[in-house]
Amino acid sequence: MTDxxxxxxxxxxxxxxAAALLLKRQGYRxxxxxxxxxxxxxxxxxxxxxxxxxxxxxxxxxxxxxxxxEAVISDFRxxxxxxxTPSPCVRCNPLVKFRLLAEAADRLGIEKIATGHYVNVxxxxxxxxxxxxxxxxxxxxxxxxxLPEEILARCVFPLGMQPGKDAVRRLAAEAGLPCAxxxxxxxxxxxxxxxxxxxxxxSGSKTEPGAFLDRNGQExxxxxxxxxxxxxxxxxxxxxxxRPMFVTEINAAENSVTLGEDADLLRGTVHAEQAFFFxxxxxxxxxxxxxxxxxxxxxxxxxxxTLYKTGKDSFFVRFDEAQRAPTPGQSLVIYWGEQLLxxxxxxxxxx
Length: 351
Fold this sequence. Notes:
Helices cover 25% and strands 31% of the residues. By secondary structure, it is an alpha/beta fold.
């Protein structure tokens, strides 16, 4: 009989801890794996080691800072310098997190890998695909839409069918784990204070003051540099305009930031590039003109619209109702019901 071993990404939080408990109940021989990419993460390793000891599982550790800097941080900087707002987790998952987890499992002779993500994997008509978690409010399929099939073939997601975070916390509490009451982390992992602009400037990014423009292209003020702004932003503009104003567009070539009212953020059509669809190469022609649901950011709800092909690796969704502040650099992720079809990186939008 094949040894039912699984290598679990163990972060020190309640989700991965609960995943370990569920995997053990399912009969898996669980081993833990944790990598760190910056000093603040390295500092939490004693907490992760203590959790692994409490779970009675071995822990394997790795310094992944070099790979992370090459695959994620360099892109993060380049995107902000281009006036876009990247999702580092969308990039990290296929290029760093799941890659390293699979490579570590190979070294240890373990076939299966697991994480504490809220998502499900299933064998669809075009091969392995992801579907939304049972708890839709915690669903993380958006962040995992670029995982390749060879990775999905090895994945186990024990939290995918959990009814919610309360149930996961109860599992950890019943096992006496101190992480049961730990708050969810909201920040970017390598910027624990959340001040991404200061981080970019410390990292060598350059930004120059420029013009705030109104919707007609007239200058109405001066901005501090495009690194400080993202589409949809209201606070932190550095000056007041007598009424609420929001960032509606960032033009890196002209070093300008366009401001408008809340209604000016609404876009009916959202374009994407770098298409990634499960079991397909580029954009699948059979989906052209099909009704779908799509998310323009992680925290958004899937909204109905129609999917259209514009090129081998590009597409757009015309939404039934306009969406607020679709942001270049974020992902446009496509669903059929609970089934995740794929997605791409937002390149622009129009009313």
